[in-house]
Amino acid sequence: MAxxxxxxxxxxxxxxxxxxxxxxxxxxxxxxxxxxxLRNRWRRQQLTPPIRDEIMPRNIILKGPTGVGxxxxxxxxxxxxxxxxxxVEASKFTEVGYVGRDVESIIxxxxxxxxxxxxxxxxxxxxxxxxxxxxxxxxxxxxxxxxSKPGVPALSSATSDESPEDAESEPEAExxxxxxxxxxxxxxxxxxxxxxxxxxxxxxxxxxxxEIFSSAGMEEMDIQFKDMFGSMFPKQTKRRSVTVxxxxxxxxxxxxxxxxxxDSVTRVAIERVExxxxxxxxxxxxxxxxxxxxxxPDVSREGVQRDILPIVxxxxxxxxxxxxxxxxxxxxxxxxxHISKVSDLIPELQGRFPIRVELSSLDKDDFRRIxxxxxxxxxxQYTALLGTxxxxxxxxxxxxxxxxxxxxxxxxxxxxxxARRLVTVLERLLEELSFDAPEMNGTHLEIDRxxxxxxxxxxxxxxxxxxxxx
Length: 470
What we know:
Elements: H1 13-21, H2 28-45, H3 49-52, E1 60-63, H4 70-80, E2 85-89, H5 105-125, H6 127-142, H7 164-189, E3 197-203, H8 221-232, E4 237-243, H9 244-259, H10 262-276, E5 278-282, H11 301-313, E6 316-319, E7 322-325, E8 330-335, H12 347-351, E9 355-358, H13 364-372, H14 378-387, E10 391-395, H15 397-413, H16 420-436, E11 443-447, H17 449-461, H18 463-469
Parallel strand pairs: 1-8, 1-9, 2-5, 5-8, 10-11
Antiparallel strand pairs: 3-4, 6-7
C-alpha cells in the first residue's frame, strides 16, 4: 500500500503553482495559498505525534466572481496530489422544506472517493497477476481439461485388464495437451483468436427492490438494504457468449477483485481521507447572513452554517466503512460574496477559515491567454473535434484577439460569467461550421478577424439579442 499523501511531499509550493499554471491562467495569490496549505499538511506529517495532532489544517476561502477559476484550482490541486476530493454546493442545504438535511453526507461521499482511489491503485498493482490468471481461465475454456481420475468410473481389480500400452499413453496425452495449450497461448497473445466466441458464467444477483424515501441520516439506507438482501439471497449465474478479448477483460476484473484485500483498502482509504481529504464548499456566500425574522426559502441559512460547523471543526462521522474523523480534512470554500460578506458568516465558522484570498476578475488579456495557453485549451479542443471530420481549423492571432475582446465586452455589458463566456462565443462562431463539417472533408479553413466580426457582429452589437443567445 502507498504511503498516505506521498505525492504531496514530492511537490514544493513553487512546483505546485507551476503545475497549476498549466491549466489555470492568472490567480497567482489563490494558487500560492492552496500550495502552501498542501505543503503544510506534508510538513505536519513529518512531525512527532504530540505536536502533529495539535496542528489543524489552514482552511481557505476563495472570494471572487464566477468563472475565474475557484473550482478549477481546488479540483486540479486534488488531482495533482491524488487526494480524495469532493465538491458540494452549500446552497443545496437551503432548499425549501429544509429540516436538517444530513450534511455528514459530505464526508460519506469523500470516503467513497477515497475507497475508489485506493482500490484503483491496488487494481493496477495486481493487474499483471490478474492478467495471467485471466489468460489461464480463457485457455481452460478453449481447451477444457481432461477428466481427472476421480471422475472416471473406476474398474474393479477383478475385471481390470489395462495393458502396459494404455498406461504409457497417459503421460503422452498429458504432454500432447500441454503442447496444444502452449500453441493456443501463442495464438491468443498474437490476437489470432480474437474472433472466437466462448461461453462464460456471470453472476446475476436478484433480490427485491427496496425504495427508501430519504430524510436526514438516511442517505445510505438503500445501499445497506442491498448489502443485506445480497447476503440473504443466493447468487445466481447465467451463461453468456462473448468474444475472447471480452472474456479476458471480464476475467481480469474478476481476478483483480479477488486479489485485492478490501480490508486493507478500507483501512488505507479512511486514513487517507482523514489526513489528505479535500472538501470544496462552493457557494458559501449563499448561506452567509443572519436571520432577523425573515421567512421563506432562505430562513435556514444560519442553521446550515451551524450544521456544517461540526465537520469543519473536527468530528467523527459514521460511514458504512467505519468511523471517519474530520479534524485534518482540508476545507476550501468559495463564493462570489457580491451581496453578502465573509463577515456575515457566524463567528465560529469564520474562525475555521483563517486564510482568505480574493481572486481577480478576468480581463481581455486573460481571455486571450485562456484560449491557447492551458493544456488542452479551448482552441485545441475545437480544433481536435473538427479534426475528426478531416477539417483542418486554423485560428489567426488577430481572430483570437477579436474573440477575447468580444467575450470581455459582453461580460462587461451583461452578467459577468468569467471564462465560461468564451465557450458561448466560440460555439456561436463555429455553429455553422460544426453543422456542415461532415460534408467538408479535407477542408483547410482559416479563421481571421474579418470572419469573427462577420459571425459575431450582430450579437456583439445588439444587447437584447446577445442576452438571448449568450
